[in-house]
Amino acid sequence: RPGDEAEEAVPEGERWGAVALVRDVTELRRLERVRSDFVANVSHELRTPLTALKGFIEALQEGAAEDPATRTRFLDIMARETDRLVALINDLLDLSHLESRNVELRRTPLELASVAGAVVAMFARKAAAKRLALEQDLPPDLPPVLADEDMLRQVFINLLDNAVKYTPSGRITVRARAEPQEPLVRVEVSDTGIGIPRQHLGRIFERFYRVDRARSRELGGTGLGLSIVRHIIELHGGRIEVESEVGAGTTFRFWLPRAP
Ligand code: ADP
Asked: Going by C-beta distance under 8 Å and a sequence separation of 6 or more, which residues neighbour residue 253?
């Protein structure tokens, strides 16, 4: 914009133009920061298990391998760290696929009872091991939703995996409802677990954001599960929200389009 003395002479439209330009640059800077934070996070997340692996390899080379008990213990840790790396890389690949512009949705009419039911069955053993009740509350007349089956399965897997991880006791429920005139079906995954403190609720869908990094790591989390879930729901034209109370439990609620 020319000098301030010219302000009076600048027509209204051009003044708005200048404001918009400033905002664009700010947005670009923000995106650039988000990108470099992401690269820093990925590097850190990759380096942590690799550093551990390197340490155990050196210990084994320097003689720890001679004691069978130590050797077994170290190899178990190394196997776990390797699993963690593989899980992280798989999540990163999923996320980059979901964020690429040419991601293809193979949408078909799906019965939630069958997609959710299959995933619930997958988690039955894990839930039983913690004595958690794992329940489905799906009305028999629930209309089918229009979604990509693999992606919808991924949503249930990530949400149930978290529900099981972060629930020491009680129950996990998958619920769905459709209002007669509504074009969207509402789905909920709720638990009676540790809950999420209010100040974190707005950020848990961000990549690598965790309430308790050490606990998530201990439980084998990558910090990417919820951002993958949100991407999938939004690609389907739906949205997701979370409601939680510390010590009482958490509900993830999302909406998917009903099949025509
Ligand atoms: P992670 O791999 O760490 O579980 P997610 O992206 O799946 O990563 O979740 C991000 C964070 O949100 C978790 O680290 C945890 O702090 C919190 N969280 C997610 N689901 C739940 C839940 N059901 N109960 C309590 N906290 C949860």
From this structure: 186, 187, 188, 240, 241, 242, 243
Question: Which residue's alpha carbon is nearest to atom 18 within ligand 1?
Answer: 162
What's the pLDDT score for residue 7?
46
Going by CA atoms, what residue is nearest to atom 19 of ligand 1? 162
Q: Write down the ipTM of this complex.
A: 0.98
Q: Is the pLDDT score of 162 beyond 50?
A: yes
If you measure from the C-alpha of residue 2 to the centroid of ligand 1, how many angstroms do you get, rounded to a whole number? 51
What count of Cα atoms within 13 Å lies in the side-chain half-sphere of residue 47? 6
- Nearest atom in ligand 1 to the alpha carbon of residue 249 is 24
Q: Calculate the average pLDDT of the chain.
A: 90
| Structure confidence at residue 18 as a pLDDT band (50, 70, 90) | low
CB of residue 249 inside a 6 A radius of ligand 1: no
Report the residue among 45, 90, 162, 189 best suited for mutation to probe ligand 1: largest number of ligand atoms under 8 A from its CB. Answer: 162
Strand partners, 243: 251
CA–CA separation, 66 and 118 (whole Å)? 46
Neighbours of 136 (CB within 10 A): 14
Residue whose CA lies nearest to ligand 1 atom number 10: 210
pLDDT computed for residue 214 by the predictor:
83
Q: What is the mean pLDDT of residues 5-12?
A: 51
